[in-house]
TrEMBL record:
InterPro entries: AAA+_ATPase (IPR003593), ABC_transporter-like_ATP-bd (IPR003439), ABC_transporter-like_CS (IPR017871), ABC_transptr_haem_export_CcmA (IPR005895), P-loop_NTPase (IPR027417). It comes from Marinovum algicola. This is Heme exporter protein A. It holds the Pfam family ABC_tran. PROSITE patterns: ABC_TRANSPORTER_1, ABC_TRANSPORTER_2. Residues 3-202 form the ABC transporter domain. Keywords: ATP-binding, Cytochrome c-type biogenesis, Membrane, Nucleotide-binding, Translocase, Transport. GO terms for molecular function: ATP binding; ATP hydrolysis activity; transmembrane transporter activity. SUPFAM superfamilies: P-loop containing nucleoside triphosphate hydrolases. One of its GO terms (biological process) is cytochrome complex assembly.
């Protein structure tokens, strides 16, 4: 197993949003997270990416193995496309960016400042960053936002290649990407409302 979550409780603003989430993510597979807006998919992904600790439960296999693409593209706007990828590759002790440029058809834009890209081009560059990390577990939050149909195809192809190379992906998305793997509706883990606190009642 490449990643395992065992009875994870995750919080937002200190309040549990999902409780006792368990899943296994084997190599060469994607796990697609489903569920309505606000249920806690981003919170779960942030926890898997190590940006916040779980309240309870254990996560195995995530440390130093996750590359995370959040809602924001996380680009440096004054650096060019190639410089952004090189910067990101070096953070992970690597230097190869050509396959990432090619996979997302960014070659012709490589000398353009990231701040001068369209929203969809920025998203392609944000996703291309995952490829230069060399990390086996891609964690992706709504990766296809701003992408046109062709770019969704490029993204799906990049994920398929990553899985074929032994990687895995955990993806929150509302669209069908046609990947090998399972879907997990996290609504079943919705946290129970907190018990009423007597202290609060004094002031209500
Ligand atoms: N900074 C915050 N402080 C407190 N609560 C927050 C904060 N950010 C989000 N929340 C709440 O946490 C809950 C879970 O949000 P989360 O972003 O994880 O949901 P989601 O399933 O990813 O939603 P969406 O599909 O809309 O992206 C929501 O009810 C949201 O209102």
């Amino acid at each position: 197993m490449i990643l395992q979550a065992d009875t994870l409780t995750v919080t937002r603003g200190g309040i549990p949003v999902l409780e006792e989430v368990s899943f296994d993510l084997p190599p060469e597979r994607a796990l697609v997270l489903r569920g309505p807006n606000g249920i806690g998919k981003t919170t779960l992904l942030r926890t898997v990416a190590g940006l916040q600790p779980p309240l309870k439960g254990t996560l195995t296999g995530a440390e130093d193995r996750v590359a995370y693409a959040a809602h924001a593209d996380g680009l440096k706007s004054t650096l060019t496309v190639a410089e952004n990828l090189t910067f990101w590759a070096r953070v992970f002790g690597r230097d190869e960016i050509a396959p990432a440029l090619s996979a997302y058809e960014l070659d012709a834009l490589q000398t353009r400042a990231a701040g001068q890209l369209s929203a969809g081009q920025k998203r392609r560059l944000g996703l291309a960053r995952l490829m230069v990390t060399g990390r086996p577990v891609w964690v992706l939050d709504e990766p296809t936002v701003s992408l046109d149909r062709d770019a969704v195809g490029l993204f799906a192809a990049a994920v398929r290649a990553h899985l074929a190379a032994g990687g895995a992906a955990l993806i929150a998305t509302h669209i069908d990407l046609g990947l090998d793997g399972d879907a997990l509706d996290v609504s079943q883990f919705r946290a129970r409302p907190q018990a009423h606190d007597d202290f609060d009642e004094v002031f209500l």
